[in-house]
């Protein structure tokens, strides 16, 4: 195991980490899947009109491809503090130290996963329902659709396929046209 601080990104962290990165590599987290299963009441929606953001949802046999970020040395404490302020804003995410696969090696990484008993959890929404919400929602960090489009584009640029995100991008563009 690597002694450095690694952070696993699967959504907006990929295109906006918000901390000093020494290295980034494609990585895989077994047993979890990327899913629009969290209602966003702060960043991409409001309490009255929630949006959706990605979260890691536990799923037997699944594997989520994302990015492993090795944090710049001597910035570990500040990085964890910044991530907690960003990711734990409503307690819908849980902070976990999970083993990811990076270049064939196992690395322990700080990872934020959905709390399936939290009121913002909405696992199992049909893709059409997700598209309808994402097309309309706006929050403190902007339009929900921009979050989707940025995430999908950055995953594609890394060679990471996600059929659900591709379908959602197409459908949301059509809904917004």
UniProtKB/TrEMBL annotation:
It is an enzyme of class 4 (lyase). It holds the Pfam family ChaC. GO terms for molecular function: glutathione specific gamma-glutamylcyclotransferase activity. The keyword Signal does not apply. Gene3D superfamilies: Gamma-glutamyl cyclotransferase-like. GO terms for cellular component: cytoplasm. GO terms for biological process: glutathione catabolic process. Its EC number is 4.3.2.7. SUPFAM superfamilies: Gamma-glutamyl cyclotransferase-like (SSF110857). The keyword Magnesium does not apply. Keywords: Lyase. This is glutathione-specific gamma-glutamylcyclotransferase.
């Amino acid at each position: 195991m690597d002694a450095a601080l690694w952070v696993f990104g699967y959504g907006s962290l990929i295109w906006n980490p918000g901390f000093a990165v020494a290295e980034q590599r494609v990585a895989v987290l077994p047993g979890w899947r990327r899913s629009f299963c969290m209602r966003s009441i702060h960043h991409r929606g409001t309490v009255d009109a929630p949006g959706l953001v990605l979260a890691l949802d536990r799923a037997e046999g699944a594997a989520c491809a994302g990015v492993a970020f090795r944090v710049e040395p001597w910035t570990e404490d500040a990085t964890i503090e910044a991530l907690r302020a960003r990711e734990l804003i409503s307690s819908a995410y849980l902070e976990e130290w999970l083993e990811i696969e990076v270049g064939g090696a196992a690395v322990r990484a700080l990872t934020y996963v959905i709390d399936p008993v939290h009121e913002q959890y909405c696992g199992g929404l049909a893709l059409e329902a997700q598209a309808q919400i994402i097309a309309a929602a706006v929050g403190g960090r902007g339009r929900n659709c921009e979050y989707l489009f940025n995430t999908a584009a950055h995953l594609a640029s890394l060679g990471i396929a996600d059929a659900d995100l591709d379908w959602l991008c197409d459908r949301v563009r059509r809904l917004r046209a």
